[in-house]
Amino acid sequence: MTDDQPSAPARRGPSRPVRRLATRALLGSAAAAAILTVLVGSHSGNAAYLGGPKSLEPTDQTSLAALPPAPPTDAAPTAQPAPVESTVTLPSGGTLMGLLLDAGLVRGEAHEAIIAFSEVYDPRRLRAGQAFTITTLAEDGPDAAPRLTGFSFEPETGLTVKTWRDGDGFTADAEKAPLVTATRRAGGRIDSSLYVAATRAGVPPGVLAQLIRTYSYDVDFQRDIQRGDAFSVMYTEKTTEDGRRVADGDVLFASLTLSGATFNLYRYEDSDGIVSYFDEHGHSLQKGLMRTPIDGARLSSSYGMRKHPILGYSKMHTGVDFAAPTGTPIYAAGSGTIDFAGRKGGYGNYIRIRHGGEYATAYAHMSRFAKGMGTGTRVKQGQVIGYVGTTGRSTGPHLHYEILVNGKHTNPLKVRMPSGRKLTGTEMARFEAQRTQADRLYASLPHDTEMASRVE
What SS3 class is residue 419? Predict the structure, then answer.
């Protein structure tokens, strides 16, 4: 190369404008890569989410770490006050308003709730000792009165009266629990009396009264019951679903063993819908008259001559006396018509019933007559006609009971009672089928244990 040849230009880098453009392109690529990495990372690393290549490497990890955390998607719910439930008992002389005010409620709110309550239950029927469950909500502020949600109480087993907040006011309702018909069996040895033995075995009072009344046509409970005798009974009762007894049911079957002899009875409803009790041979236990028209009473004086406890001399006692507390119910010994009801000398309050044909019965010293009893009133056997008292010439509360045959006084404990019904033909066949079913049910029941039930 000669001096007069032009020399090659020296190698230089790109001009400044070109360098600025390249720098901007590189920076743009890095930022795009970082943004793409964040988006891809938020979708499980799947680059296809943005339509790009399946795998990309972030170019700037530091920029990812510097991103602020994402805000929470749901705010925490505001805590609501829990309802407060308390049970309080109505004191003697107390009122429902007093109970609600004692619970800290505002008088106006308590008044509105009681008005709603009064539409389904009369507050005047409330009694001391009844328990109320009151539910409230706490209001904001230390001095704020609680807010009434509602209250409830059970005036009788199986019936609940509820009052609750309904919008701006209150609503009340009375709700009856579903009832169950339970079949039970009980029995045991008689050491002193049927009453004591049956009560000890858990037989409800109404069932026991029904049992005594049915057997009283043939059994003298003062004389025939001996130590070592035995009884058994199968009966129904109405209960709530949690087992609380609401009402007595019916005696379905019973057996008394007296001095070695056994007397069975079965409940039978005939084709006309008439219910009665029969022995295993289809003979009705229900005679024309009852020997003892009172439950659980003690024979205090027999029929015959005796020294009168008030007059002081011997006098014919024309009936039998049953000592019992004042107010004990007295039953009509048989169906018939009352031909006298009123005050009668030494008899005090007195009723006489004619039973048709040759028989009549009389009841004396009553404290009062049952509602509707008067001369000319027709009564059914077993219907309550009055209550034990001590009116007239009497030394204490008792029933003086007489049976007259053709107008003459007869010993009620020995008189031959009018015979009852005897089943025959189709009725006897129906009875035998029901008797067999009752025997099987009784045999399947453990003592005093529920065997079968149904919700009604």
Answer: coil
Which residues, 6+ apart, have CB-to-CB distance to 379 below 8 Å?
332, 335, 336, 337, 338, 353, 373, 385
Q: Give the residue with greater pLDDT, 414 vs 204.
A: 204
Q: What is the DSSP letter of 322?
A: E
Strand pairing partners for 343? 349
- Which pLDDT band, with edges at 50, 70 and 90, does 357 fall under? confident
Residue whose structure tokens are 């058994």: 232
Name which of 121, 87, 119, 113 is nearest 166 in CA terms.
113
| Closest-CA residue to 399 (of 363, 372, 429) | 363
208-246 per-position pLDDT tens digit: 988 888 887 778 776 778 888 999 999 998 888 888 888
Measured CA to CA in angstroms, residue 260 lies from 149, 226, 227, 234, 263 at distances of 64, 10, 12, 21, 10
Nearest to 327 by CA among 390, 402, 248: 390
Please state the length of the chain.
456
Residue 256's beta-bridge partner residues? 231, 263
The two tokens of residue 41 are 């990372």
DSSP annotation string for 258-299? ETTEEEEEEEEE-TTS-EEEE-TTSBBS--SS-S--SSS-EE
For the segment 249-261, what is each residue's pLDDT rounded down to a tens digit? 899 999 999 988 9
Q: How far, in Å, CA of 59 to CA of 64, rounded?
A: 10
pTM: 0.54
Domains along the sequence of the chain with CATH: 84-176 (3.10.450.350), 178-286+420-456 (3.10.450.350), 298-410 (2.70.70.10)
Nearest to 335 by CA among 380, 378, 285, 289: 380
Most confident of 8-22, 175-189, 359-373: 359-373
Q: Where are the beta strands (DSSP E) in 103-207?
A: 131-137, 147-156, 159-166, 169-176, 179-190
